[in-house]
């Protein structure tokens, strides 16, 4: 599978109780369909070869022998498939009956894993027929082959990196200490659960939470295959509630009572990255495990069977998005509140431009003052018009401060900047980096000096996306006394401002915020053209929605450039062509590496999400690191 993905599937056949020949044919048909779809791991339910609801028929030799014969035929059928298959059956060994999962691949039975925890309460009476599994590994004979059998088996694919399979059965995941916990500590990245969980009211919610939660705890993929229609309904009904989860996220979920097969592509590289980052999965957990090797050639899939979110920092649903926005605003405000409280500072100084970032910083500052019971008039907003300031942003800055009840100071900086140009010999007609950065540094000097005069604190406005790209003037807007937006990406800044506009209960304030949202992102350092903003950031460094996407996968999971490019192609299909995506991905890597020196001396600021660039926390990166390996891969694509 390309770029670290494998395709997995959980399926529920419509069986007949105790009819092993019929059930075998049902499984074979599903296996053929899954193979045609490029599935590499197919999981069937518990005891699916016989049916879970056989009751005392499990004590009949004819049923046990029929199940074994069907199993060998299923194993033989995998000989022409590039797919591992798991199916459940009763298996007798040494005078005891076990509920087992058989792992089939390459025409063979690779191993048998017994159910470790036998339920014997309420509607369950498995102890009447089955013995609990054991942790040691023994060899049993199946047909003409010797097969490993035991609760400490792992199945490792030799030619698909990071694909190691652990198996548990139904009740095993419902107990306090599931076998899958030990499987994961021993190296399993994928857990398969063959289940026959009967359906009662509300049980599906708990089951889904249980499966997704276990995948999160184990930093694993979890494939849960459930029994369904076809089982006996004497006392119970089974809903075929099949689930595929990955690190806490449900990738695919069957509609109950439909006997569906659900399929998803699992990102093994993501799981490895998470484990590498946390460092809690150590080799000590691998003791006493038997590892069974197998091989799959894998299938190339032109399109992943999973949704690639083009905005990974922004929740899809409005409900979740609003909750996230409220949470982030609270974190930002609480961080600033603590800093103001600790320093006994009663004044905050903030440069207000009428743009997105300074608007968000001002909203956060107003919240922090409200929390402290301080008068908002003690927030000193400073607007500093210069060569590139447009009427639109200036008016929005003025209106915003008025509606929020903060104090506004206007400090035009044209004369100061022109004097500085004269002092250093800069031609004001040359609109180069000196021309631009001199304005940014002059503004920062004004803010710092105003803060000194008022015994105040300069609140920074720069966001995470700008810091990642180095789109900030060193010792200019790059610097403050506390940076409230430092870990908020640009794509999320928009939603935070919109959320405030939607919930502020002030129509005039909401109108100002909406116009700020509608204004092109710009540092406004070049003169306007016909009164309109001439300098648009995204025309220069690229679309922020692309850069935030790149940033997320580079820092959160450490993906290589080729994989990020492939993900972006799918996420932004129809929005950007492949040449555009590649162009801006190269830009991101060049800027991200070359601009680390700016991030190495960032002011304090609150972390709000899983990606941040603070040199004291999430990104301890040398300023002299070379981007050669990453750029070389991009150049060869």
Question: Which SSEs are present, and which pair or pack?
Answer:
Blueprint (H helix, E strand, L loop, with lengths): L4 E6 L9 H17 L4 E3 L17 H17 L6 E10 L2 E10 L2 E7 L22 E6 L2 E6 L2 E5 L6 E6 L9 H7 L4 E6 L7 H16 L2 E6 L16 E4 L2 E5 L8 E6 H11 L11 E5 L23 H25 L5 E4 L4 H17 L6 E5 L7 H14 L2 E4 L3 H11 L8 H22 L2 E4 L3 H6 L12 E2 L6 H14 L3 H12 L18 H4 L3 H14 L3 H11 L6 H17 L1 H4 L28 H8 L2
Parallel strand pairs: 1-2, 2-3, 8-15, 9-10, 10-11, 16-17, 16-19, 17-18, 19-20
Antiparallel strand pairs: 1-14, 3-4, 4-5, 6-7, 8-9, 11-12, 12-13
The assembly state of the depicted protein chains is: single chain
Name the CATH superfamily classification of the largest domain. HUPs
Low-confidence stretches: none
What is the molecular shape? elongated
CATH T-level fold name of the largest domain = Rossmann fold
Query: Biggest sheet: strands, sense, closure?
Result: 7 strands, mixed
Bin the helical content. Answer: 25-40%
CA-atom Rg in angstroms? 30 Å
Using the coordinates above, name the CATH class of the largest domain.
Alpha Beta
Number of domains: 2
- How big a fraction of the residues is strand? 15-25%
Distance between the termini: 18 Å
Q: How many helices?
A: 19
The CATH level-2 architecture of the largest domain is identified as: 3-Layer(aba) Sandwich
List how many beta strands DSSP finds: 20
Strand order of the largest sheet: 13-12-11-10-9-8-15
Which structural class should the secondary elements be placed in? Answer: alpha/beta
Rounded mean pLDDT score: 95
């Amino acid at each position: 599978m390309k770029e670290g993905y494998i395709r997995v599937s959980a399926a529920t056949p419509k069986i007949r109780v105790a009819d092993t020949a019929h059930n075998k044919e049902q499984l074979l048909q599903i296996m053929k369909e899954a193979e045609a779809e490029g599935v590499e791991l197919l999981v069937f339910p518990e005891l699916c070869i016989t049916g879970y609801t056989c009751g005392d028929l499990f004590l009949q030799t004819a049923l046990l022998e029929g199940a074994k014969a069907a199993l060998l035929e299923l194993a033989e059928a995998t000989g022409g498939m590039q797919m591992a298959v798991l199916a459940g059956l009763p298996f007798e060994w040494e005078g005891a009956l076990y509920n087992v999962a058989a792992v089939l691949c390459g025409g063979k039975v690779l191993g048998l894993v017994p159910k470790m925890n036998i339920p014997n309460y309420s509607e369950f009476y498995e102890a009447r027929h089955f013995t609990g599994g054991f942790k040691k590994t023994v060899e049993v004979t199946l047909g003409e082959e010797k097969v490993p059998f035991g609760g400490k088996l792992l199945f490792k694919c030799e030619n698909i990196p990071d694909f190691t399979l652990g198996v548990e059965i139904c009740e095993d995941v419902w107990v306090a200490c599931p076998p899958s916990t030990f499987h994961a500590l021993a190296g399993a990245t994928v857990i398969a659960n063959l289940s026959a969980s009967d359906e009662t009211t509300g049980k599906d919610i708990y089951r889904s939470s249980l499966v997704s939660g276990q995948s999160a705890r184990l930093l694993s993929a979890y494939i849960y295959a459930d029994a369904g229609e076809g089982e006996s309904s004497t006392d119970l009904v089974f809903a075929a509630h099949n689930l595929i989860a990955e690190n806490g996220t449900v990738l695919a979920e069957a509609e109950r009572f439909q006997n569906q097969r659900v399929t998803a592509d699992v990102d093994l590289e993501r799981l490895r990255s998470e484990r590498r980052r946390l460092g809690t999965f150590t080799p000590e957990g691998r003791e006493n495990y038997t590892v069974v090797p197998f091989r799959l050639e894998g299938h190339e899939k032109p399109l992943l069977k999973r949704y690639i979110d083009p905005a990974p920092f922004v929740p899809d649903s409005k409900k979740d998005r609003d909750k996230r926005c409220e949470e982030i605003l609270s974190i930002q405000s609480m961080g600033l509140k603590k800093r103001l409280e600790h320093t006994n500072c009663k004044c905050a100084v903030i440069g207000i431009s009428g743009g997105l970032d300074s608007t968000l910083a001002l909203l956060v500052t107003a919240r922090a003052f409200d929390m402290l019971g301080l008068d908002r008039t003690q927030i000193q907003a400073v607007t500093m018009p210069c060569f590139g300031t447009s009427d639109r942003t200036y008016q929005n800055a003025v209106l915003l401060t008025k509606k929020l009840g903060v104090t506004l100071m206007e400090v035009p900086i044209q004369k100061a900047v022109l004097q500085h140009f004269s002092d250093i010999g800069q031609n004001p007609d040359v609109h180069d980096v000196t021309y631009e950065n001199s304005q940014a540094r002059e503004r920062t000097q004004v803010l710092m000096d105003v803060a000194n005069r008022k015994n105040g604190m300069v609140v920074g406005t720069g966001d995470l996306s700008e810091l990642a790209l180095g789109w900030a003037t060193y010792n200019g807007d790059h610097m403050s006394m506390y940076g409230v937006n430092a870990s908020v990406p640009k794509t999320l800044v928009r939603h935070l401002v919109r959320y405030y506009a939607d919930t502020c209960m002030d129509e005039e304030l909401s109108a100002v915020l909406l116009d700020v949202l509608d204004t092109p992102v710009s540092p406004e350092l070049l003169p306007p053209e016909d009164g309109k903003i001439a300098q648009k950031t995204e025309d220069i460094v690229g679309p922020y929605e692309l850069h935030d996407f790149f940033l997320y996968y580079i820092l959160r999971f450490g993906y290589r450039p080729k994989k990020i490019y492939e993900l972006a192609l799918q996420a932004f299909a129809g929005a950007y062509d492949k040449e555009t995506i590649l162009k801006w991905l190269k830009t991101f890597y060049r800027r991200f590496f070359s601009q680390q020196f700016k991030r190495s001396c960032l002011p304090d600021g609150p972390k709000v999400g899983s990606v941040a660039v603070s040199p004291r926390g999430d990104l301890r990166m040398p300023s002299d690191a070379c981007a050669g390996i990453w750029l070389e891969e991009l150049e060869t694509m």
